[in-house]
Amino acid sequence: MQETDFDVLTIGNAIVDVLARVDEQFIAREKLVKGSMNLIDEARAEELYAHMGPAREVSGGSAGNTAAGVASFGGRAAYFGKVKQDQLGEIYRHDMKAQGVHFATPAAGDGPATARSFILVTPDSERTMNTYLGACVNLTTADIDEKVVKAARVTYMEGYLYDRPEAKEAFRAAATIARGARRLTSITLSDSFCVERHRDDFLDLIRNRIDIVFANETEIKSLYQTQNFDGAMQAIRRDCPVAVLTRSEKGSVIVRGPDTVEVPAHPVTQVVDVTGAGDLYAAGFLFGFTREMPLARCAQLGSLAAAEVISHIGARPEVNLAVHAKAAGLL
What we know:
Blueprint: E1 6-11, E2 15-21, H1 24-29, E3 37-39, H2 42-51, E4 56-60, H3 62-72, E5 77-80, H4 87-98, E6 101-103, E7 115-121, E8 127-132, H5 146-150, E9 152-158, H6 165-180, E10 184-188, H7 192-209, E11 212-216, H8 217-223, H9 229-239, E12 242-246, E13 252-256, E14 259-263, H10 277-289, H11 295-309, H12 321-327
Parallel strand pairs: 1-5, 1-9, 2-7, 3-8, 5-6, 9-10, 10-11, 11-12
Antiparallel strand pairs: 2-4, 7-8, 12-13, 13-14
């Protein structure tokens, strides 16, 4: 494989997570359904922000989390995602660059504000999420930098972004460029509801344009409309060169051609917040994969990163993953 500028390029929704601790009265007063995830408009986003107490803004979004994870392992990561030229957009750009991720997607000068997800944590650690998608859904083919795609060993795409036709075309454009440059393509199915909405498109993409697919057990069974994990595993084996299937505490299963590799989950003392587990698993796996490590080691790195991120609030690592992996004897 030729030398490249980037190990992994990720493409997805650029969302700023706004984390705040609130009491039960706040949830009741704002008429929120505790523990739920709701999509809200910009006016409601501004209203909630005004009513909240002190908050911490952290750049998020599934593919953005994966890029940050790759960089924390010491990999060369790039990211395509859409923000607006506003305060939260600047926070997002600053965070990505500070984490060592190449992020040069032009900010929108007008239109919807930068996406944000208000993550309200009550004293019992329950999270109530209210997400305004804003500018992030307006990524188009114009935001696909051909030079960056050609310079990346793997282009990894987030299923969440697939709802709009413009984003779908951006996906296909990136995959075509990557394949034309003899680079690898990858997709995460993101969510079982996402699979339900786009099953036919996902299957077409996986069968014809994707080299590595990431899915959890629920998503892969939804893709093939079966309750049988083994049946879904055999189906994806036929449809994609490499499939990485995560099963929470059961660990993960990787299938490549006739090979099946099962790896247990990395031990975790306390599960605080599972948000970002799949994103960071993908980061560890892709970091190892782009260094041509055995599949089992790639999965171990993914599990280690997932275990770290679920041990605290927030979807990005709080330790240097390269140091963490070396201490665990994985690097």
